[in-house]
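Re: Re: ligand-bound prediction request (bumping)

Still looking for help on this. To restate: I need the protein modeled with iron/sulfur cluster bound, output as structure tokens. Inputs repeated here so nobody has to scroll up.
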Amino acid sequence: MERAPKVSFVSLGCPKALVDSERIVTRLRAEGYELSRSHAGADLAVVNTCGFLDSAQAESLAAIGKALAENGKVIVTGCMGAEPEKITSRYPQVLAVTGPQQYESVVEAVHRVLPPRHDPLLDLLPPQGIKLTPRHYAYLKISEGCNNRCSFCIIPKLRGELRSRPAADVLREAERLVAAGVKEILVISQDTSAYGSDLKYAASAWKGRDVRARFLDLARELGELGAWVRLHYVYPYPHVDDVMPLMADGKVLPYLDVPFQHAAPAVLRRMRRPAAQEKTLQRIARWRDMCPDLTIRSTFIVGFPGESEADFRLLLDWLEEAELDRVGCFRYEAVAGARANELTPAVPEAMKEERWHRLMRCQQAISARRLKRKIGSRQAVIVDEVAAASRSHAGSGMGAAKGRTRGDAPDIDGTVHVTSRRPLRLGEIVTVRIERADEYDLHGTVVGF
Ligand code: SF4
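Reply:
Sorry for the wait, this slipped through. Here it is.
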């Protein structure tokens, strides 16, 4: 029998790029291609690049160089593909460059270089497609592109205007994922609360009903599928208040990932952030009134051009009052093509570094305080990693595992270190009594299966 053509695949960048990679890989697998773990063992390498920051572009270029050195036949796709000359000037031997969301073009390029086997084994493809995340959680992309124009960001240039998927389309994918064993759905997009505005919130038919392409309606329907539903990249618009009752009722996880980026009005204006004029502290207080268990995570940028010491202090004061649970912080980095590059005065690198440390110190104390409040409580925990029988547990029938509470997203938030009187399974959701907390993580014992 003819050998199946083999492709190695590198996926760089954010969860949105990962979803693109999953689509490309699913399509290739459907056509009978095999995936290779190494470039050397493949007939062709595909690199899905990230172009968000200059450092991400450098990482992408290095990944292309590695694939060329180890394989020689390389196709490049993803965000950097929007500016192909950046790639071809450095690596003219790259076989093809395609832009973000151009699945068809990537697949066509693969066909040209490495034609599919004559008789693809279509029935080997699982109905939910091929996932690059563990089996028990999956990212669900509800829209592409973005209608905002944040001055530090070139994503709208790279990925275009907001294009939402019809609600029924999203729900069908979510249902397939749940049927395939997915226990947690992570809803992603560039601006989740703007979902459907480009479709004028048009309805589509789902299980004999009409479901509108609206943030609240979609969250409500996803909440009926029986999996954990986690909402990422939600901007603090007033209509976000409407999902709080769903969170309080346990339909959707009481978790919001809100990229605030800053708190000083002058900086937010210069950043041209959506919802910048919202009174965010009042909004957070209202959310917590409606859903006391709510976990809020966010990201911030320090050292944005023109950020004064007073602006920065205002941010620290805001953080003290907001008491967010989890915070990521980036030092501002210029991105080629972003309008923020023209803003002055630039904040010196040493000052960015110093502010980053101050913010992290301030937030660490807040996060630790909030985690401590969980000691003594019982939390639902989803198991992400099962320890290989350790010496202390071997033969004892006990299990040790790492998992996450409803307030922790994979990869970006904390972990719960769990001991259990029986071994645990990946994706199992158990009740854990929390006994200890450190700066980022919780420790506890399973008290309910
Ligand atoms: S909301 Fe702002 S930062 Fe996010 S993708 Fe859109 S323009 Fe970029």
